[in-house]
């Protein structure tokens, strides 16, 4: 009878220890998964590196490096084209290249000279403040371009060439924005892979070498 009781106690104690160990292991695994997700959101591929999946890690790290190189390249090109446009306007329209406001350089795209622009400002002032000459004058003084802010394009073709330079700069900045979205997407893919597609799961991402790429697989 004593042996049976002792055996029963040992079995109960073993079950308690097993349950506790299993719970502790699950908690530890959950903690590791949380760390890999956070690491992937900071640097895509870092979480995969922590999970010893070096091939995935390298693919995502190289993808991220390529994305940031493209982002820097588009931004550099956009700034370069804007700088060229300013110098071009300074030479061919006697514009003030020291102005920081982009509104000024946008106005140079649309108007042959500052007199035409200021006429539009005066018209807007009359429409906004029809019975208040003082408010009209304040509006004109605030939004008009006078003194060293005037410009006068030598020809329409030169103004169009200036617009082309500014247009290419805007396109470059737009592309940089799309590239930045790719950097965010790369981090989300890396984090999702660590959260749901680890080696102990049926569903997962797997890299292919020929042709190169990443595919979605289901393990039976």
Keywords, please?
single chain; 220 residues; mainly alpha; two-stranded antiparallel sheet; 7 helices
Describe this structure in words.
It is built from 7 helices and 2 strands, in the order αααααααββ. By secondary structure, the protein is mostly helical. Among the domains are: 32 residues; 36 residues. Strands 1-2 form a two-stranded antiparallel sheet. The longest helix is centred in the N-terminal third of the chain and has 41 residues. About 11% of the residues have low confidence.
Average predicted local confidence, pLDDT: 80
Largest sheet: 2 strands, antiparallel
Q: Report the portion of residues in β strands.
A: 5-15%
What letter string, H or E per element, gives the SSE order? HHHHHHHEE
Number of helices: 7
Shape, per Cα inertia axes = elongated
Assign the structural class, choosing from mainly alpha, mainly beta, alpha/beta, alpha+beta, or little secondary structure: mainly alpha
Strand order of the largest sheet: 1-2
Rg from alpha-carbon coordinates: 33 Å
**How far apart are the first and last residues' alpha carbons, in Å?**
48 Å
- Low-confidence stretches are 5-28
Number of DSSP-assigned strands: 2
Helix content: over 70%
